[in-house]
Amino acid sequence: MNRVLNFSAGPSMLPLEVLEEAQRDLVDYKGCGSSVMEMSHRSKYFAPIIADAEASLRRIMNISDDYHVLFLQGGASLQFSMIPMNLAKRGEKAAYVVTGQFAGKALDEGARWCDAVCLANGKENGFTAIPRINAADVPQDARFLHITVNNTIYGTMWSELPETGSVPLVGDLSSVALGREYDINRFGLAYMGAQKNMGIAGLTVVIIRKELVTGELDEVVPSMLRYDLMAKNGSMYNTPPAFAIYMAGLMFNWVEAQGGVAEMERRNKEKAALLYSVLDESSMFAPRAEKDSRSITNVTFTLPTPELTADFVRMAEGRGMINVKGHRLTGGCRASIYNGKYETESSGGITYDTIRDYAEQGVDFISVGALTHSVKGLDMSFKACE
Predict the structure, then answer these.
(1) Domain 16-258 has CATH 3.40.640.10
(2) Helix or strand or coil: residue 35?
(3) Among the four given CATH numbers 3.10.20.30, 3.30.540.10, 3.90.1150.10, 3.30.450.20, the one describing domain 261-383
(4) What is the pLDDT of residues 12-59, one digit of tens each?
(5) CB 3.0-4.6 Å disulfide test: which of 60, 107, 121, 193 passes with 76?
């Protein structure tokens, strides 16, 4: 089977092992005679699926019992409304930092409910850098400070989380959760759409400190948008996205088996460093984000002209690399290098006599010969095949 390399910002590429396990369970889950997509969320078969998914996520993200873990329907953008409705009363202050389109949407939705204050906006510099924020910048009467930790469109990332004083930090971790280690205790609330590094579309995970789930909300907040009701009912106040939760559980187990989030971060940093090094040295490609703000999961870059960009996208597709076209707001190109695919290469000092030894170690590519290192822009590699 020849699988393409999918560089989409989401839904993203999943590990083949995860897809194959889901394939085995699709028609008959663990011998129960029913598909995962058919079973009731109240059944004895689904109960361990959601419980195991939560337990696995708590392990790999080091989530303590001080937090609820909620598996909710819809995309992460729904949280732009749910967060202010649950954490602030009407007219109370909330702080935001705008580092891209989704951060801006969060601010707009917050302004519908509360006194939404924008502490910094990166629009003037084209969202190429993350602004500096410290506790002195954060109004201490704000109910929360919202940041978008990684920006898929512009390829930027908070390398260090801001200090907020006594104000709870709220973070959209959609495109970097499980791809980089974070101390979850730094957050009052963290949320993430699953279709980046956690599985498939239709599920959003919310991790919220229990002390913030008070239930003392404005009476107009719809029941379906209340964290307290979701927490009291084990994320099953209504029918949850059962299959998406099942897929997320498979991804959590896969990450754990690979060595956990620390190993995912190591791999992602390695992939990103390799790609950025090529972009920085190139006279054709130019990275969009400033160096100290670069994402390790979404690498954005440009070419000199739209025509060359279109040629590059076509060339990539012809070589089995899809969805490298940049977002419509930015143009250019984008490579989203999430956890789902990781290729390894061996090079340096490899000869005809030793090439088999390297191939047997399970690497994907082997670079051989003086030409690889002596002629700029010329590479000689072999695909390792079974």
Answers:
(1) yes
(2) coil
(3) 3.90.1150.10
(4) 889 999 999 999 999 988 888 888 888 888 888 899 999 999 999 999
(5) 193
